[in-house]
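Late entry, evening session. Most of the bench is empty. Finally got around to the prediction I had been postponing all week. Sequence below, unchanged from the version circulated by S.P.
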Amino acid sequence: MQLNSTFFVATVLQPCTLYSEHSVSALHWRSVAPNTTRARRYSQGHGRFQEMLAEQSYKLALNLDPKLAKTHQNLAVIYHIKGNYSSAEYHYKEAYKLDSSPQILLDNMRKLQRRLFDMQDNTCWRTDATLQ
């Protein structure tokens, strides 16, 4: 797949430019006023921006080459943290199909299974408690 220049500018360069501008501003606020509410809010917003940029970058990479195991794994971790467990499970499984050797992948898959089991167990418990 060949990228045209408009697509490249819109999907890669603009987000990178925004990221750079936000990074410089965030670093400035951290050094000038680390204990102010404004600095904390700005820093938190910067973190969400980084997370969104990472997610979009991984999605773009998978559109270009869906056989990138590490990219599936990283995207799964983002979804896992966000609580989007069905997407996390899908990307963990895709990563496992492509490369089943990384121990961290297996550990993360187990953590997700435990989380899903706990959620199911809690739902059943609440349902049973409401019947009594």
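Two things to note before I forget:
The chain is about 85% helix and 0% strand.
Helices lie at 5-32, 37-64, 69-82, 85-98, 103-131.
Will write this up properly tomorrow.
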